[in-house]
Amino acid sequence: MSVNSLRNFIAATQSIRVQDEQRLSDLGRIDSVAVVGSTCSGKSTIADAIRQAVALKGLVHVPMRYITRPKRKQDNTIENTHLE
Question: What percent of the chain stands above pLDDT 70?
């Protein structure tokens, strides 16, 4: 994914922001992005938005997420796989 593609996607959202624009500009190519946050901070919501974004179709793959905590009723079963 190009830096401009990621920058345009971020600019179109209200829930993501670039902390350091210069560091993003210094990248030539982005091979991966890690979404990090506490419980209920919206990580799955962001991953779903990225997965469904028409502008990113074919450019981004959101991998399966493996979870070792107990299952919850609202867990996203498309993205999450529980391990015991």
Answer: 94
Average pLDDT, the chain: 79
Which residues in 36-67 are b (16+ Cβ under 10 Å) and which e?
eeeeeeebbebbebbeeeeebeeebebeebee
Residue listed under structure tokens 């829930």: 15
Contact 79, 47 (CB under 8 A): yes
The DSSP string of 25-81 is HH-S----------TTSSHHHHHHHHHH-GGGTTT-----EEE-SPP-TT--TTTEE
* Cβ-contact 3, 23 below 8 angstroms: no
CB 48 within 8 A of CB 79: yes
